[in-house]
Design a protein that fits this description.
The complex is a heterodimer of chains A (328) and B (288). Chain A has 328 residues and is an alpha/beta fold. Chain A has two domains: 150 residues, Rossmann fold (3-Layer(aba) Sandwich); 165 residues, Rossmann fold, CATH 3.40.50. Chain A is built from twelve helices and 14 strands. The longest helix of chain A has 15 residues. The two termini of chain A are 25 Å apart. Helices cover 40% and strands 11% of the residues of chain B. Chain B has one domain: 3-Layer(aba) Sandwich (Rossmann fold), CATH 3.40.50.970. In chain B, helix 3 runs parallel beside helix 4 and helix 5 runs parallel beside helix 6. Chain B has a five-stranded parallel beta sheet with strand order 1-2-3-7-6, sandwiched between helices. A two-stranded antiparallel ribbon of chain B has the order 4-5. Chain B has ten helices and seven strands. In chain B, 51% of the residues are buried. Chain B is of the alpha/beta class.
Chain lengths: 328, 288
Amino acid sequence: MLNKKLFLNQKLFDHDALTKPTRDGFGEALVELGNTNKDVVVLTADLSESTRTQEFQNNFPNRFFEIGVAEQNMAAIAAGLAVSGKIPFISSYAVFSPGKNWETIRTTIVYNRANVKIAGHHAGIMTGADGATHQATEDIALTRVLPGLSVFVPCDSIEAKKIILESAQIDGPVYLRFSRDKTPIITTNKTPFEVGKPQVFWETNNPKVTIFATGYMTYNALLAAKILEQKQIEILVVNVATIKPVNESEIVELAKRSGRVVSVEDHQVMGGLGGMISEILAKNSPLPIEFIGLQDTFAESGNPKDLIKKYKMDEESIIEAVYKVIER
Amino acid sequence: MDIPTLTQEKLKDLELKANRARELVIDMLLEAGSGHSAGSLGMADIFVSLFFHILNHNPKKPNLVGRDRLILSNGHICPIYYAVLAMSGYFEISELKTLRKINSRLQGHPHRTSLPGLESTSGPLGEGISQAIGIALSGKLDRKKYHTYVIASDGEQQEGNTWEAVMFAAKHKLDNLTLIIDRNNIQIDGFTENIMPLEPLKEKYLSFNWNVIEIDGNNIKEFVESVRTAIAFTKKPTVIIANTIPGKGVSFMEKDFTWHGKSPNQEEAKKALNELRTLQGRIQSENQ
């Protein structure tokens, strides 16, 4: 059942449960930060509406910079602002930033230890109709390998807001991943958030499998858990909002509680959350793992729901993976 | 802060310092066994002018809030940068010998947080002007008086990022930013005009709404005067296209693109140092 200690949204499974895009949480948090911290500046590359930076622009026009369609320029300008004491948030689609401008981020922001927050939007196949060109499914892998870069993937708009406010407190570069569509509100304002801490959202006494999920896909994992509950199969669903730096020993402990693992993410199965979990377990406690995510392929245009089903990231596919890992 | 008048005495002093910086560059590159000779030597006059006459800076307080900022975009010519930093007193001259070696603060390409005096991390080309823009923008936001200088190579004018930055600086009328382009006409694979022509470079910048000054980059007086003009200019960023001789001061390196990314061997270094110490035969070296 939903972990009572975390004050999660009890109406989560209702048919009229609240939904909101995680990027909305980003926009709201930026305005809040704008009010409380005069060093916060925002840069966008011709995507202010869809990356939700317009409210900040309206409220703080002098601290908002429209860079135009130039993501490399945006990253390096932000680096310059950061070494001069500002806290820049740069905002674009994840395919372009950190996709197109990856080396600029590597050199001028991460290696340079510049205090820049990189917001990558429209991540995952959830982006839908725009097609594979605009669906960033490699960005966790791209960012996770950069030394000293923190990586966060919020599961809903409320967690997104908390993470953004927290990221401004981190003295160093951060990557933040957002998705386009409305997704269910899983947490509440009372749900605690702690950098690095994986949180058990679905708790059981004798779990057979531990699901590690990230981003809005945590909801699909919770749906799977609920269906499995009716079949008397107990599992854990762990929301991993911090990809880096993660508390490794807690990941190991949670995996060992069941002895079997399924990773769930809207990202390539290589190099993302599943990769991170595998590396940690291989070092500490090798366990069987099944991977839910994009299976080394590009997706296509379509309705997000249809895409999630076709590319086997829906609750049915997660349940299949749970059965499969139990049989191994 | 205003740039002081350049007296004959000061000019002579700067010329001798530039020669000394060139000697240090040769010493460093010989010791390192790899590195970029031509650009480092070609830019000695400009670096020395900046650090010993133009910049408002304090080697004892490298993080001074109001200091002028210098960003080196083409990080590969860092030997000359390191040489003038050491000569200015940011660190000991003896440390120059650690260039490119393990456990050194003098990385093969500059790393901001490794060494006092560095304002950016650079090497991958085309990124310096953007970083300088961020620093200049921050200065405008905070109404600080510092001036931001950025040195870029001519080869990196081929990078798309350069022109993204050039557009932005004009849009924001960054008159607290001065770009100095080392127009030495060479890059690793050959002459710029054969690899990917840049001309007409001056007209390119004019059409992007920049103030453009073209000078002899190995003439200290001309350079100092061009900077004086640049910082007085308002409502536009200024680019100083500095025509330099790659390898300047060492006859067999001058204008030869093969010296772009090469360091001298023992024999070549000896010959180079002899030329520098005798000011190309004009005076006698104490070692002769």
